[in-house]
């Protein structure tokens, strides 16, 4: 160890791309295939969310194991959260034995029991069934697959650890067929899919983050701000992608400024939650401002609840108080040229805050 705080960085050097076997801005289907071996020392998940025309939201995630336990063995499971207007949130989970899991390394083709998540960077199909609930999703990308630089973030003086992220479908059209308790429904809307993997417990690398994706008028937005743990120099890693009409028009993280407004302490988690999450992107005379306005917290989960047995006991004794919160509300995009407002559009959106570390660090 060098004796000074370590750092965190994007893997954006030519040698990084060469070592990873990928190219800048040239995303291949294998990048959405399985990138870990499923065993100790890594974790992985494939995520889908959608905001539907009737005001519903649907989130489906396929995991190789708990993200809190990368040192553990393969322990595959699927989670579903369905929010429909005027109804209680439906939480579903399907856990299976390791031999009921398979995943291709060539493309996204994941099977967890009878549940499947398949696609090719543009067209995806997701199937989930448990008890009296069946969900079938079709997602068609409208914005090309994208990643911040290589998609890898390295942590440590010698890049000892990494967290990787691929928004395979930054925005797409969604068709959902539900049958919940014998009540069928067909819904349509806007959706998103990304793929995440890493090699170390996230709470050891990252203190907290805000992340969100949205559509606002003709614009598609993916934005995040990651705060590394103190051991990695409190590094801040901004991520921003803006597309219009299916074409990416802004994604230089160096041009992003991030700030929060109307923060308050969330009663359940004890974490600071901002009612306004704001990204400013300045590019010469043009400036884009993206504002996430919280109207509802739809998930407020203590991460220790994801652990079981001895691991849960140890986390409780260590006073681990990590939390995950998901919000819905309005996402507004404003465009300025030479300081003058020229465009102002907004639409519903979903975003999240993951808070692993202690407040104030």
Please give the count of helices.
Answer: 3
Order of helices and strands: EHEEEEEEEEEEEEHEEEEEEEHEE
Overall shape: globular
Tell me the radius of gyration.
20 Å
- Strand portion, in percent? over 45%
Which residues sit in consecutive blocks of at least 5 with pLDDT less than 50?
307-320
What does the main sheet amount to?
Answer: 13 strands, antiparallel
Termini gap: 21 Å
- Would you tell me the overall average pLDDT? 91
**Strand tally:** 22
* CATH architecture term of the largest domain: Beta Barrel
The CATH superfamily of the largest domain turns out to be: AttH-like domain
Helix content: under 10%
| Tally of distinct domains | 2
CATH class of the largest domain: Mainly Beta
CATH topology of the largest domain: AttH-like fold
Structural class: mainly beta
């Amino acid at each position: 160890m060098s004796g000074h705080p370590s750092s965190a960085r994007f893997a954006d050097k030519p040698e990084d791309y060469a070592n990873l076997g990928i190219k800048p801005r040239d995303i291949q289907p294998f990048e959405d295939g399985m990138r870990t071996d499923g065993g100790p020392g890594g974790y992985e998940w494939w995520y889908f969310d959608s905001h539907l025309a009737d005001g519903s939201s649907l989130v489906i995630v396929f995991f190789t194991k708990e993200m809190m336990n990368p040192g553990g063995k393969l322990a595959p499971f699927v989670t579903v959260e369905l929010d429909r207007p005027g109804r209680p949130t439906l939480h579903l989970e399907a856990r299976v034995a390791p031999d009921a899991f398979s995943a291709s390394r060539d493309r996204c083709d994941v099977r967890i029991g009878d549940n499947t998540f398949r696609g090719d960077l543009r067209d995806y199909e997701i199937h989930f069934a448990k008890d009296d609930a069946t969900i079938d999703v079709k997602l068609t990308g409208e914005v090309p697959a994208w990643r911040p630089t290589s998609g890898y973030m390295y942590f440590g003086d010698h890049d000892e650890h990494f967290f990787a992220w691929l928004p395979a479908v930054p925005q797409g059209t969604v068709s959902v067929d539900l049958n919940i308790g014998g009540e069928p429904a067909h819904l349509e809307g806007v959706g998103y899919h990304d793929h995440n993997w890493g090699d170390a417990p996230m709470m050891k690398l990252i203190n907290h983050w805000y992340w969100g994706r949205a559509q606002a008028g003709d614009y598609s937005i993916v934005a995040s701000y990651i705060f590394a743990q103190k051991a990695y120099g409190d590094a801040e890693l901004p991520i921003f992608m803006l597309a219009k009409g299916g074409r990416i028009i802004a994604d230089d993280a160096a041009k992003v400024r991030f700030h929060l407004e109307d923060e308050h302490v969330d009663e359940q988690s004890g974490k600071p939650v901002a009612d306004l999450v704001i990204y400013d992107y300045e590019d010469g005379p043009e400036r884009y401002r993206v504002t996430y306005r919280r109207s509802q917290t739809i998930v407020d989960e203590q991460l220790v609840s994801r652990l079981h047995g001895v691991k849960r006991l140890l986390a409780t004794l260590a006073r681990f108080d990590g939390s995950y919160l998901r919000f819905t509300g309005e996402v507004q995009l404003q465009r300025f040229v030479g300081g003058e407002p020229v465009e102002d559009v907004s639409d519903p959106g979903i975003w999240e805050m993951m808070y692993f570390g202690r407040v104030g660090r």
